[in-house]
Amino acid sequence: MDFITSSNKFETKNATSLAKAANIVYLDWDSADTEIKVAGFKQFKYFDREGTQAFVAANEKHVVVAFRGTEANQLEDIITDLKVHFTPTKYGKLHSGFYHATKIVIDEICDTVAAFRNQHQSLWITGHSLGAALATIAIAFLQDAKQYVNGLYTFGQPRVGDEAFAEKFNIRFKNRTFRIVNNSDIVTRVPMRSLGYSHIGTHIYLDNEEALHIDKNLTWWFGFTDRIKGRIETFKNTGFDDVSDHAMDNYLGILHRNLQIQSIA
After folding, report:
1. Which pLDDT score is estimated for 239?
2. pLDDT digits (tens, 9 = 90+) for 113-134
């Protein structure tokens, strides 16, 4: 894993590196430790507290924080059990479950980042699904702990807070936050806007043909018609694609292929 640190715009290289981290955090911790070392990170600490799982890894150039999310085969459970109550915080109203799951580990994570970040390394945050929601909340805590975050890249992220939270978040972090959505991924559409929830960050859309589209170039109609096209095409082969589009393996594969195309061009 390596990063372009001199840019405040979306970088496929950074997205692919953080997709690898968001995938590694699903492994058992011994396997994750091995994969992190193979990726060139000598320092590694994992956290497993009351169902919240994450790791911090570091080398002489970068520090990475990755939060574990929800497996594709558990998707029905997270959607069924998703509680939509808000908790008031100084950042705005946040989803109660996401906020408390972050609070369980965030002090230890901030301390570990401070200890590992002893050579002015860049700091990157990531997560998939539930882990994306926790990563979004964590960036605010890290910033308050005087730990500047170079980039937050999330995959298959549910909505985290209300509109006031989204507005405050975007003022501070939008130019460093990239919310990547794969075609028909159903988790990115919950909790619903009608319940008061709002998305954050710069929207990066992966269309049915695996092309990347950035926030300012997207329209509602394009996204809608592309998701319909994706559903029709995938239904012919598998019957349903809202779940497969949520799988972290698919996010990583698409980004890796885009990175290869860019390197050839």
Report:
1. 47
2. 999 999 999 999 999 999 999 9
Q: Which residue has the tokens 């990347």?
A: 212
Cα–Cα distance between 175 and 173 in angstroms, integer?
A: 6
Is the model's pTM score more than 0.70? yes
Structure tokens at 198: 């709002």
Q: How far apart are CA 32 and CA 46, in angstroms?
A: 9
The pLDDT tens digits of the residues spanning 58-96 come to 999 999 999 998 755 555 545 544 556 889 999 999 998
Pair 252, 18: CB distance under 8 Å:
no
- Lookup: tokens for 107: 């002090």
Q: Which two tokens stand for residue 147?
A: 């730990």
- Name the nearest CA neighbour of 155 among 23, 6, 4, 11: 23
> What is d(CA 92, CA 116) in angstroms, rounded to the nearest whole number?
30
